[in-house]
Amino acid sequence: MTIVVTGGAGFIGSNFILDWLALSNEVVINVDKLTYAGNLENLQSLKDGDGHIFVLSDMGDFANISELLKAHRPRAVVNFAAESHVDRSIHGPAAFIETNVVGTFRFLEAVRFYWNNLPNAEKQAFRFLHVSTDEVYGTLTPSDHPFREDNRYEPNSPYSASKAASDHLVRAYHHTYGLPVLTTNCSNNYGPYHFPEKLIPLCIHNALAGKPLPIYGDGQQIRDWLYVKDHCSAIRRVLEAGQIGEAYNIGGWNEMANLEVVTILCSILDELSPRQDGVSYIEQISFVKDRPGHDRRYAIDATKIERELGWKPAETFNTGIRKTVQWYLDHQDWVENVTSGAYQNWVGKQYGA
Asked: Could you tell me which residues come within 8 angstroms of residue 230 by beta carbon, excluding any fewer than 6 positions away?
């Protein structure tokens, strides 16, 4: 038995593959085009013969994907591949439309033709799981109920608009062609192998380097924080037992303002790797100009996946963030390897000198 994972060298995809192969003997075909955030070093612990086959390819390459599906005959596809950074989508939206919209369309076409030609039993068992985000729902006021699966889509950034479009394409391929799809919409992930442009890994990296910890605006933007290993376990459960055509919101039940997240992170660093001068890392917090169209609050109501599939997160924010900080302290070589000149140029462009 085989599954195909797209974007498997990225943050969430690589965690999913590592967890999958630790729990299963089923072979994973990892399709990734290795953009700046794709890093095979994330999967370095997998040796030859561990059930991981890497294929360098764009998911939007119809011919290549068609050949791959025909050769490996997967029983399922898990689609992580996406451009995913809001800030980058503001500066360069074209890549997000090309990958998240056009790429998803071409990938769906390849999968549809593969699925249509399967023997009936394999066709009935096949699943296409599309991994998406809570950002497609837009923003919430402080008094609004957290996002449910039936919330209206109201994306506010080029990134979230492109992901909303991909969600709609996946839905359409189910209702029009019968493709057996599942969609998951997750809250903000954090944990090992997170590329250091997002809030938590960026602040860990900057803190240890003695640099400012940039906080947008007043730092009161609220997010629901989900430990990446919990996200991976939820995806496995949806793939196993989710109802075809349904969407499942995956959240950590951890609503927290960005400033509070960074303050907690600093206190853990003060304990585990204190500054030589004895001053708290909190003193490095620096407020910068807010980004355009910054959504004020996201929150996930993960009741449906718990009620229907019996899943709930294993980590609280306090346990998950401590594991995350310790991982980065223990893997400074990984951080040094990914923080290349190109990354430094990006940080300078986004946050200023």
From this structure: 250, 252, 313, 314, 315, 320
